[in-house]
Amino acid sequence: MMKVADWIISLCLLTSGVSSFTAPGRTSHRAWSTPSTLRRHMAEGDPTGASPPGPPYAGPAVKPILDSITSPEDMNRLNLDELKQLAYELRWETLEAVSKTGGHLSSSLGVNELTVALHYVFDMPEDDIIWDVSHQCYPHKILTGRRFKMAGLRQSGGISGFCKRKESEYDSFGAGHSSTSISAAQGMSIAKSMLKKRKNNCIAVIGDGAITGGMAYEAMNSAGYLKNRMIVILNDNGQVSLPTGTPSAGGVVPASQLSTYTSNLLVSKPFQDIRSFAKSFNKLLPEDIQTVNKRIDEYARGIVSGGTLFEELGFYYVGPVDGHDLDNLVPILEKLRDSPSNKPVLLHLKTVKGHGYPPAEQASDKMHGVAKFNLGTGVQLKGKPAAGPSLTSVFANALIDAATEDRRVVGITAAMPGGTGMDIFGRRFPKRTFDVGIAEQHAVTMGAGMACEGLKPFVAIYSTFMQRGYDQVIHDVAIQNLPVRMVLDRAGLVGNDGPTHHGVYDLSYMGCIPNLIIMAPSDEIELKNMIMTQAAYDDGPTVCRYPRGTGYGPDVLQNLFGYKLEDGQLPAKGEVIPMGKGRIIRRPGAARGKSREDRVAILTIGTRLHEALVAAQQVEEGDPTLGVTVADARFMKPLDVDLVRELADEHSVLITVEEGSIGGFGDHVLHFLTLDGLMDDGDLKFRPMVIPDAYFETGTQHEQYELAGLNAEHIRGTILRLTKRKKAPKLEDVEVER
């Protein structure tokens, strides 16, 4: 860390206009000239990151600077012009990689220059950079030795789309959910201080969406109070929700008053450069030097004002600063790094999500999450058309049907209107749509308050994010038995986003709460029915969970599920189904399963019903003596005990199948079987098929079902082993194989 005297000399030179001064002991990157080879390559594109002409859009043919970077340490020898060229090459490297794999694109483009500046100024892994959510970490991964692993981004056996501590020493803290970075940075800062580590630079990079989360406020309040040395970088790009601008009760503005506050700072103040920043820097000086510089500070306060909220929380506020301007970003970060102060700092950056790629800048969602796409045009490549509609749209349209019939129906989401279908509902009923930002706890309890006064709130949240509002589900909803309708999208395995986004725990964490009704549709018709059932039920809270994906379409529903569809069309509207009642979908074929020992029952909940039906067909086709019954439980709570008794009485084998973790539906069925004495005679074999007790990394949903052992072939194998048609492997052999 710089000596205070050297630091003051640097500050004085900056305030007097000598902006190219570099701290003693460091080589000045501004004094160097640009090599002729670099000038030649820079002519191929715009190293400032400005949007290229097009379409078609294309990056540089070669990337000489990026080719020379194998770790952040290699950046130390670069001058400012070379850093700008590196940022230009890095942007196109990110674009080229994501165009081939899909992933989170625009957030990475928006922090491209910031990533270059952070890795140039700070010394990872000794210094810690914590990316909130970390979906914007692709440039960081490329600069930290994973450039040639980007072809496997979010693929089975490849690298994660988020930061992951076990993946790289440069990933200081793993993430996937939001608003955690400031807390983690504070903890690291305290630990470094207590352990007397030589350096204590902890940087949290958090967006204007993530900073709306309550945990971020808790951390800022604590950091200011405890005066922990840390830098919080607020990446302000105006994208609070996905997508921002969904019609709602708050209008089409970002779902955050804090976003309005920071936007007002941006429009009321000019961008801060290194000179004006230096004039306001008195607050980070030791107290005796502050007295000497009081007159400078009085002058500076007339130039730089604002950031009152953050200053009241105990932070030194710097900004706003152009997050794409390396000329100012690098020296400001250097001064913050070298400050002797322990006061936490908030550096407010204004960035453009999708910066440097016009298709991303112009898209309503800024191309936040993309499939593979044409790099020249930005058009995303569509896969094979699905037979049925997306389940998210089925939910949204069913909710519109319920709201059309009942003016008391309202929708709540936590910054995910696009992901949950609330954007569809919002376009039809904007005044009945409430986007609360990244605030799941608030969303649940706000729904409870609405229910107290007679509204019918539907709280639509991803299963993985509902974990963040768990106490509110118990304390504010279930204990008071309030009719809040919770709808959990992305329940089960979600594919490429990996373990931070799998919704595999909700049956377990919801199932132990009294008063909750928990249901899971097996198909798109059942999803419509269950939304209408929730709307009609006013006697307590309900939960409906459904997976990521699409419906099956009329052909599968008729030929496999046995639906009788009028004119081969799906029903226009859902209907209320009996509460807590399951259904038998398939009975054994004729002349099969004549003895109880040859009869098998499969009881599923949710969309594993399809695989169970396929497995039943395969078993009967392969063995003329076996008969397989397949039932859909529909509800985990209340459990259809009459259906369970019937299956247990008439079959020698009962298998439950669910897309959930240990402790869910299968455990509830087993609990009932034992308490009801249905297993006392020893003539019933029971097996729960669940997601194993492990974290499932990136891959397609099908690959993850294979690993979890929940596809038709696994169900078939379980039946054959339990009926002694196939030898069962030892448990330890199964674990080794996995």
Automatic annotation (TrEMBL):
Signal peptide: 1-20
SUPFAM superfamilies listed in its UniProt record: Thiamin diphosphate-binding fold (THDP-binding), TK C-terminal domain-like
UniProt keywords, alphabetically: Isoprene biosynthesis, Magnesium, Metal-binding, Signal, Thiamine biosynthesis, Thiamine pyrophosphate, Transferase
Residues in Transketolase-like pyrimidine-binding domain copies: 389-554
One function term, GO molecular function aspect: metal ion binding
Any one GO biological process: thiamine biosynthetic process
Region listing for Disordered, in residue ranges: 25-56
Enzyme class: transferase
Pathway: Metabolic intermediate biosynthesis; 1-deoxy-D-xylulose 5-phosphate biosynthesis; 1-deoxy-D-xylulose 5-phosphate from D-glyceraldehyde 3-phosphate and pyruvate: step 1/1
Cofactor: Mg(2+); thiamine diphosphate
Any one Pfam family match given in the protein's UniProt record, by short name: DXP_synthase_N
EC number: 2.2.1.7
Cited PROSITE patterns: TRANSKETOLASE_1, TRANSKETOLASE_2
Family matches, as Gene3D superfamilies: 3.40.50.920, 3.40.50.970
Source species, domain of life: Eukaryota
Subunit and interaction comment: Homodimer.
HAMAP family given in the database record: DXP_synth (MF_00315)
Family: Belongs to the transketolase family. DXPS subfamily.
UniProt cross-references to NCBIfam families, sorted A to Z: dxs (TIGR00204), PRK05444.2-2 (NF003933)
Name of the molecule in the record: 1-deoxy-D-xylulose-5-phosphate synthase
